[in-house]
């Protein structure tokens, strides 16, 4: 399995002595073309890694912001195949930024595990996060992704005890995504006091970098998490920028990228200020 | 008929799988809870005091056993096999749903949970959940699609009288699947104190098996009653299918009896040839939703479609995984009835038997004549009368163009 792009990115972040910023956006939100423009602008705006959500009709672990984003994506006609096309279009102009797809299992089941893994690899996708596919159910998908050299990125949560962490770490690569709150996306705020020891546990169990997400809304919180994690994920606040821009009749592309810039700057500055 | 010999059928396996169906497809946050629930349920199953306590409440609070009634005028009407009603509409709260709620609430209390959440479509499961929560003094939150809140307003009021909080869900089309999504979001947010009381034989393991076990009291009683009355087993068991709990409850004790035909009736809505139905087994294909792999109504991209049925208890785009397996095995047969057929059967049963059925079993009633003819005179067909129609009279009046 090659996790070349992901590993290289975390290696250079380590060399810089800082955490990475992971930007989550939804495929097709608000249109295919604008989503592509957003994707293409993300690295320059400060995203070290990109998570690209693929829409699902029943996103059971998402709060209202990402639910609405998924609906906009579906309305724009973005299927899983369309998401892979979008990924490829991004990859054509960016050889280095790791690109992770994130979503739910049924569209992948419908596409077929092997076909999906093959087409994702061909589109330049580095990893996949499947929210409703715990380790107990993941072997068939992991087999297909392994064969295509695409990582299955696993989720660890506040409810994962040591035995589960071991299970979670067993067939994963790239990094582990630590869900910092018990809850859906975009509602509760992460408590940084509990995040630090959790990140340490996940790092130890997996031997992999740990990205922390689900409760990051402000630059202040992003900076706090950046001091203890290997990467900080923000999603709901970014897709909410799309919603707000649509409401205001302004450019979603500009709005999302400005927010990425602010959060990315906070992450980049977090450890520097500390050592000054 | 696929020959299943006694004692061969022991589903699901330890992973909660019925062949390729079932499983535990939930977010990682919920996995420890689902595993803990399974352990707690297994412990209760092995504990005779749990069963004794449940039996006591089923007898004195729910009103079991429910009668097995020979529907003589309906039998005469079709001039074919004897038609029997398993009268679960006589249960406290008016449907089979309380069999499951009583079992799960006792389990929840043993687990020390204080807050109960549930999803509901027709409102029958919500009412049953609110009822047992009132009885045992537990907090109750019910998620109900906004469209269903409209369609089933008497049940909404009932739940509120019982002290439950009813939260209308506006995402999606505002029906049962959306309510289930919202309940799962609540559960993942309140992992410490909350018990999710699922109302049908679907969801992540152990729910499909557990709900089936609690509903199997229907089939166990039917078996004893039919043997007492006719000194034989029924020739066919017939039940309406939403998520599949009343049907699996009737079917399960007969699965190893190859001579007993098991027939589930799905909601054909405006017809199986169009998009407006809720027949997951006959109009869907396998996929993953709400914690289990099963037949689903979905488009080519794997997006879940909204089911349609005149009955708010049947318009779920999925189906319990055990039915998916029984269908593939060929052990159960699945047919469908349209909105119009169900409405007609609703009226016929009311007039001939003096029993106003819920719209859900009206779907089974709509196919009972043809099944009685297939079985033939002298044979015995049991229909699960899983709910009474009080909750539906406003909706039916509207469909019939009657102003109340
Ligand atoms: C009376 C009645 N029958 C049937 C159903 C459908 O559920 P199931 O298929 O789980 O029995 C419902 C659901 O609300 C109901 O209220």
Core attributes:
heterodimer; A: TIM Barrel; 9-stranded parallel β-sheet; 14% strand; globular; B: 404 residues; alpha/beta; Rossmann fold; 4-stranded antiparallel β-sheet; binds pyridoxal-5'-phosphate
Structure description:
The complex is a heterodimer of chains A (276) and B (404). In chain A, strand 6, helix 8 and strand 7 (176-179) form a beta-alpha-beta unit. Chain A has a single domain (3-269), classed as TIM Barrel (Alpha-Beta Barrel). Chain A has 12 helices and 9 strands. Chain A is α/β, with parallel strands linked by helices. In chain A, helix 2 (32-45) crosses helix 4. The mean pLDDT of chain A is 95. In chain A, strands 5-4-3-2-1-9-8-7-6 form a 9-stranded parallel sheet. Chain A has helices spanning 4-16, 32-45, 64-75, 80-92, 105-111, 113-122, 139-148, 162-170, 192-206, 219-226, 236-248, 252-275, and strands at residues 20-26, 49-53, 99-103, 127-130, 151-152, 154-156, 176-179, 210-213, 231-234. The longest helix of chain A has 24 residues, at 252-275. Chain B starts with 16 loop residues before the first strand and ends in a 5-residue tail after the last helix. Chain B has 2 domains: 25-60 and 97-206, 3-Layer(aba) Sandwich (Rossmann fold), CATH 3.40.50.1100; 64-94 and 215-400, Rossmann fold (3-Layer(aba) Sandwich). Chain B has helices at residues 31-45, 48-62, 72-78, 97-110, 124-136, 146-151, 153-161, 176-189, 207-215, 217-230, 245-251, 280-283, 321-329, 339-353, 359-375, 393-399; strands at residues 17-18, 21-25, 68-70, 82-86, 115-120, 139-145, 165-169, 194-196, 236-240, 261-269, 285-289, 291-296, 332-338, 380-384. In chain B, helix 10 (217-230) packs across helix 11. In chain B, helix 11 (245-251) links the parallel strand 9 (236-240) and strand 10 (261-269). In chain B, 62% of the residues are buried. Chain B has a 6-stranded mixed sheet with strand order 3-4-14-9-10-13, with helices on both faces. A 4-stranded antiparallel sheet of chain B has the order 1-2-12-11. Chain B is an alpha/beta fold. Classes of the chains: A alpha/beta (276), B alpha/beta (404). The interface between A and B is large, with 44 and 35 residues. Bound molecules: pyridoxal-5'-phosphate. Pyridoxal-5'-phosphate (PLP) binds next to helix 5 and helix 11 of chain B. Pyridoxal-5'-phosphate binds at residues 95, 97, 121-122, 124-125, 200, 240-247, 313-314, 358, 360, 386-387 of chain B. Chain A: Pathway: Amino-acid biosynthesis; L-tryptophan biosynthesis; L-tryptophan from chorismate: step 5/5. Chain A: Tetramer of two alpha and two beta chains. Chain A: InterPro entries: Aldolase_TIM (IPR013785), RibuloseP-bd_barrel (IPR011060), Trp_synthase_alpha_AS (IPR018204), Trp_synthase_suA (IPR002028). Chain A: Keywords: Amino-acid biosynthesis, Aromatic amino acid biosynthesis, Lyase, Tryptophan biosynthesis. Chain A: Its EC number is 4.2.1.20.
